Amino acid sequence: MFAAPRIAPAAWLKALFCALAVVVLSGEVLAQDREPRVGDDNISVDLYADGEPRAGEIWMLALRFRPSGPEWHGYWSNPGDAGLGMQLELDLPEGWRAGEPLYPVPERLTIAGLMNHIYEGEYAVLVPVRVPDGAATDGLLQVTGFVEYLACTDEICVPQDAALRSRTGGGFTRWRAEVAPLLDASGAFAVSQETLRLSVPLPESVELDDPHAFIGTTDLVDYAAPQTFRRSGDRLIAEISLDEFGMGRAEEVTGILAFDDEIGVRFEAVRGDVPAGGEIIAGPVGARTPPLWTLVLGALVGGLILNIMPCVFPILSLKALSLVGAGGGEGEARREGLAYTAGVVLACVTLGAIMLALRAAGEQVGWAFQLQEPGVVVALLVLASVITANLAGVFELPGVSTGAGSQRGAFATGLLAAVAATPCTGPFMAAALGAALLLPTAQALLLFALLGLGLALPFLAIGFVPALRRMLPKPGPWMERFRRAMSIPMGLTALALVWLTVQLGGRGFAMFALVVVFGVVLALAVVGRLQRGGKMAWPAFGLVAAPFLVFGAFALPSSYAAPVGDARESPLDPRPFSREALAEARATGQPVFVWFTADWCVTCKVNEGVAIERETTARAFEEAGVISLVGDWTARDAEIAGFLADQGAAGVPLYLWYEPGGEGETLPQVLTPDMLTQRAARAR
């Protein structure tokens, strides 16, 4: 069946000939009454029979195709993005049934972003014929028929047809060996969001040098999309993007799983459960999973480095004050260190478990997904404002005490530090967090726990090593001044969350959120005044804050306005990212730069200011003809999340550079000022 081609600038001529071929090769006359109209000059075809037929058995026929030159190629039954599969009619006695043609493993040919499933050189297609029991086979020496197919070069396609008359001989031994055999056991497939997940029963001992799944079911997958393969015991799991132009629905999926360029097997799969996890053995650049020990080390070191990141420092200052003021002895310091560590690790594991559960349920989410939820951001805004007021001395909150003996406060501070650290994990946790999306659940949760352990490690060491505690400044009046000074960075954090609230929900949504914040801070100010007078304070908090909280519960949902996915203002004048936009940009033959960002990602914003959104970069891109695309992941976007997962990335930032006609190169997550301009200069 002809697959309607997706038109690309460099492939329109070929697509036109394919369309014309459908018209030329149409007709309903019986095979024996038909005469060739265009001939088989470019790829000749002959029909062979494997000996004489026998009643009750399978009799094999073969069509041998021979190109007239190396520039011509034929097509598999599903030709891919452009082309035409063979149309065969055989004149068989009544009751004789021809089965589905059996093909060798196809080859891949990509032109201007269009993937074709082809055969270069001589190839044979076998046609099994079931001979009914009791059939009279004497005197049946020849089979006649008619075949229509397409012969193409990289530039042009020509319809071909031929009247068939079988002969004996041929190379059936070789042809049978070249056909992809059918697996005895059925596979399973599942469709999740924009991805086909396919499970094929294949012994773990089978070597796969260059695996590729040729999907025979039409209008299902994006043929040109990268395919990811994972091992799960004696199962091979393939993940393939669905075809956005097709229905993406099927009750059965069939095809050929190629091990390399020549060897493969046929498979049949029905809807069912597809195992999660497994070891990545093939896929896009960056998708392969590094050894577990390197991921463990990366998670631990990445968490340790997070302690110096600006989005973590204001909250960590609370714990620093607690450690400085700890006067309860060595045992108390250890308990505080353990409580803080427990809070950090629990928060990291909980966030990771929620993310994995959402992905298992079909949601396209990544690390720091909670910052894409307007309600969560409002809650963090209120919390940051509360901590700012506490540090400024507006009120005292016993549960977040900065003095000695505050295990509950240490635990709460650990929880808060881990949540605040998620936007800053990009530069240090790319490999580990990307692998966590693909590893078995237990190993993925181990990585999240080690991220938390690395984040908590400095304070855990101070709690258990007296020499480190003795290096800290002695308690004194300076601590109160330091505490008030720390209200400034925490207040700036709250302002950043106000800005993020505007980006996620609109100005009206942010205004109502500020009304809620004002009510809570006002209530805390009343609490502080009563505390200083020695009176019962916290009942007053409920009386003052309750009207504002009730107002927010009704006003915030009604004022929410989803962000519009238009391209941002930038010197690079980027287009909004989509898979289709990326394919169109690459088809132009120009260099392409794609960056994925979010307004809550500190590293993203630093890179944009240092290397991306600069006039120098814009001039270099204009001179080199670089096309820019930006994927804004501030709010949830299933297409961006799916593409990030295909690249082995759990979150942003992600930077990809495509040379003309080449595959994507993943750039470092910390960009230098000249990194992009130098690549643009080389592309000129």
Spell out the blueprint of helices and strands.
Blueprint: H1 12-24, E1 43-49, E2 58-67, E3 73-80, E4 87-91, E5 97-98, E6 107-111, E7 114-120, E8 123-130, E9 144-152, E10 157-165, E11 167-168, H2 172-178, E12 187-192, E13 195-201, E14 212-215, E15 228-232, E16 235-241, E17 252-258, E18 264-271, E19 279-282, H3 292-305, H4 313-324, H5 330-360, H6 374-391, H7 407-421, H8 426-436, H9 441-464, H10 466-470, H11 478-485, H12 487-505, H13 507-532, H14 538-559, E20 575-576, H15 579-587, E21 592-597, H16 602-612, H17 615-624, E22 627-632, H18 638-646, E23 654-658, E24 664-666, H19 675-683
Parallel strand pairs: 1-11, 12-18, 20-22, 21-22
Antiparallel strand pairs: 1-2, 2-8, 3-7, 4-9, 5-8, 6-7, 9-10, 12-13, 13-16, 14-17, 15-16, 15-19, 17-18, 21-23, 23-24
Helix pairs in contact: 3-8, 3-9, 4-7, 5-7, 5-9, 6-12, 6-13, 8-9, 12-13, 13-14, 17-19
Describe this structure in words.
The protein is of the alpha+beta class. The protein contains 19 helices and 24 strands. The strands form five sheets. It has an eight-stranded mixed beta sheet, with no helix packed on it. A five-stranded mixed beta sheet has the order 5-8-2-1-11, with helices on one face. A hairpin with a 2-residue loop joins strand 15 and strand 16. Mean pLDDT is 81; it is low at 1-30 and 399-405.
